[in-house]
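Sample log: Lysophospholipase L1.
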Amino acid sequence: MRKLVLAAALALGLSLTGAAVPAAAAESNGGVRVMPLGDSITEGTQVPGGYRIGLWQRLAGAGYRVDFVGSQFNGPAALGDHDHEGHPGWRIDQIDANITRWVQATGPRTVLLHIGTNDILQNYNVGSAPSRLSTLIDHITAAAPAADVFVATLIPLASSGQEAAARTFNAALPGIVQSKVNSGRRVHLVDMHAALTTADLIDGVHPTAGGYDKMAAAWYAALRSVPGTIGDPTGTPTAGALVGAGSGRCLDVPGSNSANGTQPVIWDCNGAANQRWTASGQTLQSLGKCLDSPTGATAGTKVQIWDCSGAANQRWNRNANGTISNVASGLCLDVRANATAAGSLVQLWTCTGSPNQVWTAR
């Protein structure tokens, strides 16, 4: 039976070696550091990016500036920050063996932990899995005592035997979490099992895209229920205006001209559609087009709107000092020549933090 379980896990792409995938360079927008931590369900097996896609979009759409952190990196362009600490096939003990150095390397403010599925799939000392989880939580809170740790119950499993084991594991979690709270640690329980059913699984273990989005909704609700874990919504809210600090005028698509290459300007704020910017991941969209830094942009290159592609030249970091910098070019949104008059052109320029580069949401 154990061989069958291992074979099934391998067939589902759950590596049993614990070997990590090489990570790309970390992305950062200077926001609140959140570590998605776990196994293939955190990584997003079957749906690359997994729940992180829906979570990122909810956070960005509400104006929260969050920086996902971790040594791993994957997901589609719709996921504005691809960093995570999800390791396919890993058990609790394997995560625990690395957690201190991961936490010390990234300094997360918030940790989202969903782990234990592979302990069950591999039938690895399942009875003592809750104890291993308790130890893992202790190591996380010791390495980051100011962090909030959200501990999720395991999502359902299609196999009746494995589901029974998951339910037994989950039943131990409320007591574990409460014991940490009683000792002064910032640990919270998230009932992820209740958020999904087996109908939300694509292969009996991993969620469908819709299932992952249900996980995203559960994480998002949990995060918003604990002040400080994702900061305050200081970014660009859905359909909000961006007001230049130096001029008091709004970022505007002149004449509501949605043709590719149109260069935005600043204009008296009027609430019109051509002054409303929607944050989706790291993109900023107006009139159905994306704010774009032309390929090879240098200081003085015009910023423009263009068909959305998800490429790095259409991804923007909303920085803590109010500047908005382009991921590809590293240049900031800038009102040319520090101008304040209506109709003044908006360009790309070396980031200085001066008032003509500072934008606030309205």
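Observation: The two ends are 60 Å apart (CA to CA).
Observation: Residues 30 and 320 are 6 Å apart (CA to CA).
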